[in-house]
Amino acid sequence: MSHPSDPTSDTTPTLDDALVGEAVLGVYRQMFAALARDGGAVVDDPELVDVAETLLAAFADAGEEGLSREQMRYVCRRYPTEVFENRLRVLRGLGAVREVFPKPNQLRYRASFTSVVGLMFVRRMMLDGGQSEMHRLLALEQLNVADPRMTPAQARDGAAGLARAFRLWSVELLTLTNGTIEELREQAPKLWGTEEILQRAERLHGAILRRWPQLDRACTDLRTAIYAYGDASRRAAARLSDSAGTTRNLTLLPPETWRTFARTASRDDLAAVLEGFVFDAPAPWHEPSAVVQAVEDGPRATPPRPAPPRPSVPDPGLSDDTGGDATATERLRAVAEQALRGRDRIAVEDLLTQDWPTARRVLADLSSAHLHPELPYRLTWSDGLAVRPDGSPTWLSPGTFERTDVKHVAAPRKAGADE
Amino acid sequence: MSKASAESKADVDPGVLARARARVLGGASQAVTEPTPPGVVAASDGERVWLLSAWPDGATPALLEEYDTAPMPLDRSGQARRVLAAALRCCWTRLDDAPWPGEAAPVQAVLEVYGGMSRGDAELARRWATGELRRLSDTGWLLLDEAAGVVRPGPRVALWPDDSLGPLRDLLRRLPEPPQGVIAGE
Questions:
Q1: Comparing A31-40, A53-62, A247-256, A270-279, which segment has the lowest mean pLDDT?
Q2: Cβ contacts of residue B5 below 8 Å, gap of 6+?
Q3: How many domains does one find in chain A?
Q4: Based on the domain organization, do B123 and B92 belong to the same domain?
């Protein structure tokens, strides 16, 4: 039992809380509608019932002395004063709480036993609805029918009452069946386990008819009511499962129902879910190249081949011949000597008399000779810039290419001796 | 997965129906005397004919790889293909011919060849290979007759284009021979 709005907590109530409270109130109103004097007489807040329950529990603990007004207020200290006063006035007015002795200025109170039982009934109705109460009533009637002191009039009354209850129940179910599917889904727990109730009711009906055959008229009423209820519940269940089946919305039925279905359904029923679908047969494709790849990647029966053996002769290490550099130096020296032609220095512009591709190559070789650290040549440039519109290089800085070891007369020959 | 029109079978084109059956059943066989509907590849061994779904332009599902599309998932594809290679080593004896229809070979020979290709517990390898033989038989790559203990190439090897078979022929020439004792013992 949960009461939706705890007055001590300061959380703001949500819409869900309001809905739960409204549902609880609905049960209260339905149960006491027969007794209420007017529509406003039933509590309009579930909390008020909690006040009454707290009070009655405190009275049960207090024993025969009862409770004083201050003690009652202390027990209900969780609730606001005006709520408490209001409830106490109503409970006293209806006789649920009474003075210990009917005298003026009585300070001690006691609670009525009937109210507690009534409240227990209310709570039970809220917990599992009218269906389990119907089970209890049927069981009680069964006992009564077996009782030798039972009179035919009492049996007729009992049968008529049950017939009425079943009729009203089936009417409610029919209304649900014709309503929205969401509402039906919410109220669906009222439908479960109806088979047992039907069997119980039919057993009771049979027992009454066997003992008092003269009650066949009342029993016919009861029988039609039972069958009407059975039809209505089957139709509601069919509508529910139909909509669940067509929408494939699995939440329309509770998970327990699906589980039961999966366990108990035949193979054809289960297969009907995917009726109308065709599945391709499993057809993995093995390309010949994939087969080759798989065999080559697979584990080998024989270990992989060992590395080829090392030669037995000792390793001579790296070769001294670095190659290339000496020939490049010789080529640069030859180019430089050909440019100088025995002289010690020569102007660069005299060397660039041919077309530009050739001149460019000569210039590159002379620059390389100048930059080479082992070759005795130098390329020097002066600051001037000669513009020659009709020359082959159209602009030119005057520069000289010279040998740096002019003192050694036989420099070319010395270079040749170095070889 | 395709929606089937189960109703009004009379209206359905028999060729369409045959293609749907070939897809659902994964290569059903019928007697050679039955008419072959258009649009399927018929692989015949002289007595029966297997109807296989054909792809346009001679393509094979290997084309999926070029389009970066995942093929049908296959557990332990390497093992299945090695077993297929071992079976082909025994059944495809004339390598210059097409692999289909091939010849029947004892299952024991295939298991021996596979055992020679793999490493580790030989008994375990034989059990793995037996399972793979059954799976390959279910998918139409081999025709396994467990009662007689023989296996032969399945109709789906007939779908291999001839110009893609070169590397496979080279591989099968390199694979160890099936032991003659097993074949003689059968």
A1: A31-40
A2: B12
A3: 3
A4: yes
By the CB < 8 Å criterion, does A304 face chain B?
A: no
Is B44 among the domain residues? yes
Q: Which of A285, A288, A295 sits opposite B71 (nearest CB)?
A: A285
What distance in Å separates residue A281's CA from the closest CA in chain B? 5
Contacts with A288 from chain B: Cβ below 8 Å: 160, 164-165, 167-168
Residue A381 has pLDDT above 50, yes or no: yes
Are B37 and B104 part of one and the same domain?
A: no
Phi, psi (rounded to 5 degrees) for A42: -90, 150
B65: nearest CA partner in chain A: A287
Contact of A278 with chain B, judged by CB distance below 8 Å, is answered with yes
In terms of residue numbers, what domain contains B20?
9-57
Residue B9 has pLDDT above 70, yes or no: no
Residues A142 and A247 in one domain: yes
Burial of A118 (0-12, 13-18, 19+ CB in 10 A): middle
CA distance B174 to chain A (A): 11
- For residues B104 and B40, membership in a common domain is answered with no
* Beta-sheet strands, E only, within A78-227: 97-99, 108-111
For B128-141, write each residue's pLDDT tens digit: 999 999 999 988 89
Strand-pair category, B48-53 with A345-347: unpaired
Q: What is the pLDDT of residues A294-333, one digit of tens each?
A: 888 887 766 666 777 776 776 666 666 555 667 788 888 8
Partners of residue B164 in chain A, C-beta under 8 Å: 287-289
Backbone angle region of B69, left / alpha / beta, with phi > 0 → left and psi within -120 to 50 → alpha: beta
Residue A324 contacts B, CB cutoff 8 Å:
no
Q: Best mutation site among B81, B114, B134 for testing chain A: the one with the most A CBs within 10 Å?
A: B81
Question: Are A301 and B118 in contact (CB < 8 Å)?
Answer: yes
The alpha carbon of residue A277 is apart from the nearest alpha carbon of chain B, in Å, by 5
Domain that holds residue A256: 129-263
In a domain, A3, yes or no: no
Contact A288/B164, CB-based, under 8 Å?
A: yes
Question: Which one has a higher pLDDT value, A90 or A419?
Answer: A90
Nearest to A286 among B20, B141, B170 (CB): B141
The answer to the question of residue A321 being in a domain is: no
In a domain, A275, yes or no: no
B137 and B179: one domain? Answer: yes
Closest among A77, A28, A13 to A5, alpha carbons compared: A13
**Residue B41 counted as domain residue:** yes
Residue B40 shares a structural domain with residue B116: no
Spatial strand order of the sheet with B40-44 comes to B29-31, B48-53, B40-44
Specify whether B23 is located in the same domain as B108. Answer: no
User: Does some domain include residue A334?
Assistant: yes
What is the domain count for chain B? 2
Q: A274 at the B interface (CB within 8 A)?
A: no
Answer for the pair A145, A211: CB distance below 8 angstroms, yes or no.
Answer: yes
Judge if ipTM > 0.90.
no
Q: Searching chain A, which residue's CA lies closest to the CA of residue B64?
A: A285
Are A276 and B4 contacting, i.e. CB atoms less than 8 angstroms apart?
A: yes
